[in-house]
Amino acid sequence: MLATLTRVKSPRWPSPDICLGYMLGQQVRRNELSSFSPGCSSVPAAWRRRATGGVRGVGTSCVLCAKVRGNTKKTELSEKKLTHHFVDHRNVKLVAGSGGKGACSFHSEPRKEWGGPDGGNGGDGGSIIIKADRVVKSLAQITPVYKGEDGQSGGSKNCYGRNGSPKYISVPLGTVVKEQGKAVVDLSEHGQEYVAVFGGAGGKGNRFYLSNENRAPMVATPGMQGQERVLQLELRTMAHAGLVGFPNAGKSSLLRAISNARPAVAAYPFTTLNPHVGIVKYRDHEQVAVADIPGIIRGAHLNRGLGISFLRHIERCRFLLFVLDLSTPEPWTQLQHLRYELDQYESGLSQRPQAIIANKMDLPEAQEKLGTLKGLVTQRVIPVSALTGQNTEELILHLRELYDGYLQAEDSGESKPTRW
Ligand SMILES: Nc1nc2c(ncn2[C@@H]2O[C@H](COP(=O)(O)OP(=O)(O)OP(=O)(O)O)[C@@H](O)[C@H]2O)c(=O)[nH]1
Ligand SMILES: [Mg+2]
């Protein structure tokens, strides 16, 4: 026990042999650096000059090396990192502020010794308000617990306690607030607010209880507890158009080709793990939001693949762009499967205004399949190549037609209003 205490209390100096080793290490490193021969071609002259200048020169070598390698381009975020940034559901516990307690005091001053009760009321606790904000893009910044500000206690001389100020939680447009699985509110308008929990009322000071019957009340009440709730915040990506397709169909490549979004693209399935929204801008400054929804496979409605969580995002798109991979043997079967999955999730979901996009038209076998596909479907088929950018103009123009149709429907009150 004593030995342990001594060990804990003793100052943490490195042992002499560690010190010596460290010093030797420094020495060896210095020697190594100074031993660079001037004729060593793999090390640039500028780097060598700095390095031989001592340890200080080594500190700047990373920057120098990066410059030598010509690695000045900013690397793109990987899907893993993008996943970290995009969060589409969160459970939060909200506890509103409690009310401050009322004061119990009596006024007294020279020549007015029995001045009567003067205890002020406590302030009300702060509420917590969930507010839709178009600047916020994901629920990543939402913390698990929020506590409202408590009201201050009342004081003597009839001083009332200050009310706790309300706390705002900013969420993206299209956030659905749920409690025990049931939707409570859908925050789809910028600035829309929902008072999730109310702060507790402040307690009463003894002045409040002054009456003709009781000239010297000794009662003061404590503040009430703030409301407490556990809520689920769920983000349904709100985009005008949704790119729906099997994994590897080229949805992310297409979104990169037509918008400013930069989702990851790779030749393996399920590259995209979260929806990405890109904005297609038109000359008249109109903007259409297009969402790249992660790949859907057969049985997605039974939670296979990435499951139903992404069918939820499709539900919120006004029109659909079915992306078919024309490098597969029978691309039209993909369309049937996609429609089936959407309808299994919500009946009539596959009947939204739509277009079929035949992707990978740059491949030689695609032309023949395009003819067969056109013969099998009644909807408009737009052949494109996301890789080469071939015919993406037709897609962008058709997107605008779909968007205008949606706006007309919204004006005539046919569809549910949705704003981006
Ligand atoms: N030849 C050719 N290849 C394409 C085209 N579009 C996409 N690809 C390739 O197809 C592969 C998959 O592309 P992605 O854009 O990642 O496909 P995705 O549909 O987003 O895939 P998931 O994210 O897994 O659902 C990549 O290797 C792309 O380079 C195209 O028009 N032509
Ligand atoms: Mg993708």
Structure write-up:
By secondary structure, the protein is of the alpha/beta class. The chain folds into 2 domains: 149 residues, Spo0b-associated Gtp-binding Protein, Chain: A, CATH 2.70.210; 171 residues, Rossmann fold (3-Layer(aba) Sandwich). The chain has 11 helices and 16 strands. It has a 6-stranded mixed β-sheet with strand order 12-13-11-14-15-16, sandwiched between helices. α9 links the parallel β14 and β15. The chain is rod-shaped. The N terminus is likely disordered. The site of guanosine-5'-triphosphate has 24 residues, from α7.
Structural class: alpha/beta
Helix content: 25-40%
Quickly name the level 1 CATH class of the largest domain.
Alpha Beta
Distance between the termini: 67 Å
Annotation, overall tally of beta strands: 16
* Beta-strand content estimate: 15-25%
Mean pLDDT: 80
Helical element count?
Answer: 11
Instruction: Report low-confidence residues grouped into runs of 5 or more.
Output: 1-63
CATH superfamily of the largest domain: P-loop containing nucleotide triphosphate hydrolases
Shape: rod-shaped
- CATH topology grouping of the largest domain: Rossmann fold
Radius of gyration: 33 Å
Largest sheet: 6 strands, mixed
The H-and-E topology, N to C, reads as HHHHHHEEEEEEEEEEEHEEHEHEHEH
Domain OBG-type G: 239-404
Domain Obg: 84-238
Membrane topology: Peripheral membrane protein
Function: Plays a role in the regulation of the mitochondrial ribosome assembly and of translational activity. Displays GTPase activity. Involved in the ribosome maturation process.
